[in-house]
Amino acid sequence: APFAAPRGMVATWVGHATVLVQAAGLNILTDPIWSDYASPLPPFGPKRAAQPGIKFDDLPKIDLILLSHNHYDHMDLPTLKRLWERDRPKIVTSLGNDTILKAHGIPATALDWGQSVSGAALNGLAPQAVIQCGSYEHCPDYQVHVTRNHHWGSRWGADRNRALWSSFVIETRAGNIFFAGDTGAGDMGWPMQARRYGPIRLALIPIGAFRFWKGQMRSDAHIGPLQAVDVFQRLGASTAIPIHWGTFRLSYEQWDTPPRMLELALRCAGIARKHFAPLRIGQSLPVPTVSAVPIGPKRCDDRAIRALE
Q1: In this model, does residue 116 exceed pLDDT 50?
Q2: What average pLDDT does range 162-189 have in this prediction?
Q3: By three-state DSSP, how is residue 223 classified?
Q4: Quick one: DSSP state of residue 248?
């Protein structure tokens, strides 16, 4: 994957909710999974339909991992163990997930919604040391905020909701990054809470696994493309990458339904496709600097309305 300049930002969609974001010298991975099955008992369970966009051995040294919750397609212990043994990255997650990781020899920092941790604290540095240093290698001056979303958690039958789920805002010298994790719509107040930390240069927003029965447009656990556009607008983000589609078969919409519906939803909202365009797995995006997203004509003709309905 290309490396971002000191104030630059490059994002590479590895597949599903796994994105490599390179910002101001920091290599970040979200919900990393390189396994072939998102399951406790492979070869049973959801099988990978597309290979990771970056080979594991081609990954740069990872500094920070964001882990949204404990479902198998998001907390992949074999991948996390390989990353920990290779790079010793800092792992930030929400309450309770650190217990699962610790049982497998992987340390993590677990926080509640609304709590934050600095790169200095994660790396054992005093704040004054960060102020005085120059390069990222000796100056990890970033901030991770654990923020609310709407989901649930479980690894096995009797542990439902014993560990928390979350989204994240990461403040870096290159700008703010929002990772929605895995989420339903809920009260739709959580995007505005994330927005309070400042302008969002890049948002990672799920669009897939929203149809579990005929005619369904979303579930309580997963937003679809229509709600994803609403989240994008409520965040006030400059650029978004749609995630959580095209990698594992988790629901009953067709493979290309999420990106096709997203394009219609953007047209109906008057938002240019370039601000929230699907990537190919393995494709890298140089993320533009923060700017207001203009709202153009809402091209929502009868055909588009019928398709979305």
Answers
A1: yes
A2: 95
A3: coil
A4: B
Buried b (16+ CB within 10 A) or exposed e, 208-233: bbbbeeeeeebbebbbbbbbbbbbbe
Per-residue burial over 163-184, b = 16 or more CB atoms within 10 Å of its CB, e = otherwise: bbbbbbbbbbebbbbbbbbbbb
Query: Architecture of 9-308 per CATH?
Result: 4-Layer Sandwich (3.60)
Lowest mean pLDDT among 116-130, 202-216, 255-269: 116-130
Sort strands 64-67 and 90-94 into parallel, antiparallel or unpaired.
parallel
Domain boundaries, the chain: 9-308
Give the integer Cα–Cα distance in Å for 238 and 181.
Answer: 18
Q: How many residues does the chain have?
A: 309
DSSP β-bridge partners for residue 29: 20, 65
Q: Rounded to an integer, what distance in angstroms lies between the CA atom of residue 204 and that of residue 244?
A: 9
**Count of C-beta atoms within a 10 Å radius of residue 70:** 24
